[in-house]
Every structure is written in C-alpha cells, then in structure tokens.
Design a protein that fits this description.
- The complex is a heterodimer of chains A (285) and B (326).
- With 285 residues, chain A is mainly α.
- Chain A is built from 13 helices and 2 strands.
- Chain A has a single domain (61-283), classed as MetI-like fold (Orthogonal Bundle).
- In chain A, a hairpin with a 4-residue loop joins strand 1 (39-40) and strand 2.
- Chain B is 28% helix and 34% strand.
- In chain B, helix 4 packs across helix 5 (138-150).
- At the A-B interface, helix 9 and helix 10 of A face helix 3 of B.
Chain lengths: 285, 326
C-alpha cells in the first residue's frame, strides 16, 4: 500500500518536467517528423505520406555539398575553440594562484555575452571589410599593398565569428574539469620526473577529457545548427544545412524544411553518440 | 637504492613575512626510520616538501649523501615522495601508476611493466595490477603509492602523513608494514606525522618540531622518557608537568606512586578516576591547582581502591623527574 503511494508521489514529482519536455521538445519534433512527409506545391502544403521530400534531399548534389560544408565549419571551429579554450582554461586553473583572480578573469571572459550574438557578429564587419580597420592597418604598416578580400564574406570570417562566439562554451567545462584535478597529482607527476609537457599530456589532458567532450558537444551542435552566423558573415555567399532549412522556410516549403531538419537532427545525434562512446561524461555531472 | 645521509643546513622557509621553517639544522643518518613529529602548522610538512623539492628553499640547504640537492628538480634528487592522499592517477591502472616514472623516463613498455610487476610483488599487490585506484581500499591504495615511490630507487623515501587517511585498525597494520619494508629495503624513511603513538611505534629517531624549530631530537625512547621542554613532555603525552620549587619537571604518569600522605612528596585530592582496561588513571589536584595523573596497573589500584574526594600522597623516584628547560 505504502509502496503504491510512493510510486504515485514519484510520478507527481516527475510530472511537471515531463509535461514541459513533452509539450516543448517531444511534440514539436513529432510535428516536424510528420510534416516532413507532407506534400507541397508552390503555394500550398497538404497532409500526405510520401517520401518525395527525402528522395529529393538525398539525391540532390547540393545537399552533400552543404552537409560537407557544415561538417567543415564544425570541425575547424572545434579545433580552434578547443585549442584556445583549453589554453585559457589552463591559464585560469593552473597559472593563477588566487581564487580572487580566477573568478575575476573568468567573469571577464563572459563579458562578450552581455550583448547579443548578432551584435557581436556584426561588429566584425566594419573591422574586416575591404576598407575596414584590419585592412587599413595592414596597409599602413606596409604588410600588404592591396586590401585583402578574403577577410570578410568568406569561410575565414564565418569561422572567425564561430570561434569568437563559441570559445567560452569550451572554456567553461574544461575549466570545471581542471578545477577538479587534485593538485597533488601534478606534484606526484613532477616527483616521478615528468616534464611540464609530459604532465600535461599524461595527467591533465586525460583528466580533462569529460570537460573537453562536453565542450565539444556544445560547439558541434551549435555550429551545425547555426544559420544566422553563416548568412551574415559570408554575406549570403556560403551555405550550411541551417541556411538550407531557413531558405525553405522563407519559401514556405515547410515539408522540405522539415525533412532537412530531420536529417540534420539525426546527423547531430549520430555525431554525439559517436563522441559519447569515447568518454563517459556522467562522471562530470 | 644506496642509503645516504640527509642533512638540513639552517634550512629556512618563509611565506611572505611568516617563517614556516626557521633555520633548522639536523643530520639524519643513512638507513634510519626518522619521524618528524609536531602539531599542525609547526613546519614539519614544509620541511619535508623542501627536501622533496616541491617547495622552494628560502635559505639554507638540503644535502643528501653530501650532495647539495636544494635546487634540483624533485626527480633528480634521489628522493621519492608518498603523498598524504596517495595522489594516485585516477585514470591509470595500478600497473601504469607504478610504472609512471619509468614511462616518463622513456623506458620501453615491456621493461617498465616488468619492473612495475616486481614492485607490486614487493608490496603484495600483484593481483590488483589491472585495477583502477578507485577500485581499491585505502590500505591497498597506500601500497600502490609506496610501490610507485619506490620504483625510482630513491635513497630516501619521504612520507607525508601516510597513515592519516586510514581507519585506526588499518593504521596499526600499515605502520607495521611500513616498518618491515624499511628494514628490508635498508633505505632511509622520513615520515611526517602529528601522532606521537605512530612516531613512537615506527621511528628509530624522532624529531619533534614546534613553531618552525626543532624542539628535541633523539631516539624514540630518549624523547619519550626524557623530554627536554614542557612542549615535548605535553605533546608526547604520558607525562605530568609539575611546577615545583626547584623548577618545572616532567614525570611519567606511570612513575607516580600512591603512598601515605605523611611520607609523600606532594599530596592532593582525587578528582577523577578513569578505568582504561590494563591500567587505571587517577587524577589528583595538588598544591597550586595543578592536576597530576598517576597511571597504575589495574591490579595495584583495585588492591587499594581510592575514591573521588580522598586525599592521597604522591611519590616518585628522584631519578624519574626530568628538569625542563623553560
């Protein structure tokens, strides 16, 4: 009797979150999956169960180019955010001795987040443009004679913006992992004759793996799902999957957009599943 | 693993304006089990960490086998350290933990696993070579930490409160193992502890530290039996410190005898009686509001039992009283 009462209580306790997740996560995804099988004309969409959207998507060479581009952005952004994020986290966690400075500098890292993503992106444009600050400075230094064209509206500017936007998502989980490393382990490594680099490679990096993995999941999912950064920073000259979807939506091709979204979702989930096979992040939660 | 003498030459550690270790001089003989004993904050850990090379020497020098090692890196000193919480690498198996220093030195896998196997054999942990540290008990982790420290063939092993993380039963067992291992290996052990029972049980030589200085050094028996200062007498326990007209003296509680007040050196009123199994501890208040404890075999006590509030006389052999420096 008591047991069934406990069970009911447990259900009640779990219910609010379950309702929220059902209403705002599961239901929309189901809706997207359903719509992805619908049909569309130039001016209307109609309920149906057909594979045309997927067939078109998976046979179009554009899809593969765009998916390749998306992976390219994700991979390059991941490499840069990891390198920069790890270095910053290392500095915060190991080079600074006092907690006061650690907290102060950590907060400084978050200052860019006081403005919106879009503003942070757009502020690059006057800097990188043909007559922007970067080109003018380089010309006045005599480094270059002609303005560099690839600074803005290129893969370079897209990746620069991604790295700028998302490095902090690497810093935070890696810093968290590093702060959990017992300092006597570093001394023990030194005592065993490890050089600074050997300690980094054999002790610190392995112990930071869960943090690196969490940061990786953040960055990869954010970059793969992005469309606005690519649009602004490439001046609409580059495409990724997000832009494919947003274009379809602006043309009211919801079924096609849904099909692309489903394929993207599956791809991202697959990537995360592969990542999670390498590292157990539950230790960190 | 040739044992070597360890010498501290006016070794000093300053943190800003505070002096943690104040010009300490001491000579540890090769192949001895030495304990640095003292309350927390007395500078014993800083001393050990300076010997190990994990703390910079502010002044003075550390000599090992006549060689000045004060400014060498920890690994090149011929010392090895066992950390208080063992500091085993949580992501490496027991075998890889033990072989870590060999890996760092670039020894090939077969050789280092062979050596690690020998070390695990030595500490009787061969069966656990493939486990992770988290899968071991405290005592087992300690043995792995020992094996990891010893694989570098140090001339002296430095132990930082190695037994404090263990429960009391295990502590007694592990200290017997430490002692046995030291005798078998013949190298010097320098063991930092705040437990005087641990120091007495283990040490060939006890160095008592207080307030950044060495209070007294000597064999365990000497330090316990003839404390030179009030601090040592109180810290080692088992002593009464009594202010007598001729000055402060230390008297072992088991050297106190109860006799007829008429013939006593001092007399007092019994304030507490504590039964301790093999012994009975009787506390009496004597002149000058001083508490004096007499420890007697339980048979002797119950042959002539006392009660709280009774007046008793206390007597001791003149040779049992040790004058204390003030």
């Amino acid at each position: 009797m008591l047991r069934s009462k406990d069970t009911i209580l447990a259900w009640i306790q779990a219910a609010p979150l379950a309702v929220v997740l059902l209403g705002f996560l599961v239901a929309p995804i189901i809706m997207i999956v359903i719509v992805s099988f619908w049909g569309a004309t130039e001016y209307s969409i109609y309920p149906d169960f057909q594979f045309d959207n997927y067939a078109f998507l998976l046979t179009s060479p554009v899809t593969y180019t765009v998916f390749f581009n998306t992976f390219k952005y994700a991979l390059i952004t991941w490499a840069f955010t990891l390198t920069i994020g790890f270095t910053v986290a290392y500095f915060l966690a190991f080079e600074l001795r006092s907690l006061k400075w650690q907290i102060a500098l950590f907060l400084i890292c978050t200052i860019p987040f006081w403005t919106s993503n879009i503003i942070r992106m757009i502020s690059w444009i006057p800097f990188l443009g043909r007559n922007g600050i970067a080109n003018q400075t380089l010309i006045s230094w005599g480094v270059i004679d002609e303005p560099l064209d690839w600074l803005l509206f290129s893969d370079f500017s897209v990746i620069l913006a991604f790295v700028h936007l998302y490095t902090l998502f690497m810093v935070v989980p890696i810093f968290n992992s590093m702060m959990r490393i017992d300092r006597s382990l570093i001394e023990a490594a030194r005592d065993s004759g490890a050089t600074g680099f050997q300690t980094l490679w054999n002790v610190i990096i392995p112990l930071c793996k869960p943090g690196i993995m969490i940061g990786t999941i953040f960055v990869v999912t954010l970059v793969m799902g992005d469309f606005i950064t690519v649009r602004f920073m490439s001046g609409s000259q580059r495409a990724n999957v997000g832009r494919l979807i947003s274009n379809d939506i602006s043309l009211l091709q919801y079924p096609s957009a849904s099909a692309t979204a489903v394929v993207l979702l599956c791809t991202v989930l697959l990537v995360i599943a592969i990542l999670l096979r390498f590292v157990d992040i539950r230790k960190e939660l | 693993m040739t044992p070597a003498d360890l010498e501290l030459v006016s070794l000093t550690k300053r943190y800003g304006s505070t002096v943690a270790v104040d010009a300490v001089n001491h000579h540890f003989k090769a192949g001895t089990y030495a304990c640095l004993l003292g309350p927390s904050g007395c500078g014993k850990s800083s001393t050990l960490r300076m010997v190990a090379g994990h703390e910079n020497v502010s002044d003075g020098a550390v000599l090992l086998g006549g060689r000045d090692i004060s400014h060498l890196s920890p690994a090149r000193r011929g010392t090895a350290m066992m950390f208080q919480n063992y500091a085993l690498f949580p992501h490496l198996s027991v075998r890889d933990n033990v072989a870590f220093s060999l890996k760092m030195a670039g020894v090939d896998k077969a050789t280092r696993h062979g050596r690690a196997g020998e070390m695990l054999e030595l500490v009787d942990m061969s069966a656990y070579a493939n486990r992770l540290p988290a899968q071991l008990s405290g005592g087992q982790q300690q043995r792995v930490a020992l094996a990891r420290a010893l694989i570098t063939r140090p001339q002296i092993l430095l132990l930082d409160e190695p037994l404090s993380a263990l429960d009391p039963f295990l502590r007694v067992r592990m200290r017997a193992e430490l002692k046995k291992l030291q005798r078998e290996l013949g190298i010097s052990f320098l063991h930092v502890t705040h437990g005087q029972d641990e120091a007495l049980a283990l040490a060939d030589e006890i160095v008592v530290m207080n307030d950044a200085r060495i209070e007294q050094a000597g064999s365990a028996r000497e330090v316990f039996n003839a404390p030179r200062t009030e601090f040592v007498a109180r810290f080692m326990g088992g002593h009464n410190v009594i202010a007598l007209p001729e000055g402060h003296v230390a008297l072992r509680t088991d050297a106190m005898q109860l006799i007829d007040p008429a013939q006593a050196k001092v007399e007092g009123v019994v304030t507490a009686i504590e039964y301790q199994g093999t012994h009975v501890a009787l506390t009496a208040r004597v002149a000058g509001d001083q508490d004096v404890t007499a420890l007697m075999p339980d048979a002797a006590f119950f042959a002539a039992p006392q009660d709280i509030g009774q007046t008793v006389g206390l007597y001791w052999d003149p040779g049992a009283a040790h004058k204390l420096k003030t």
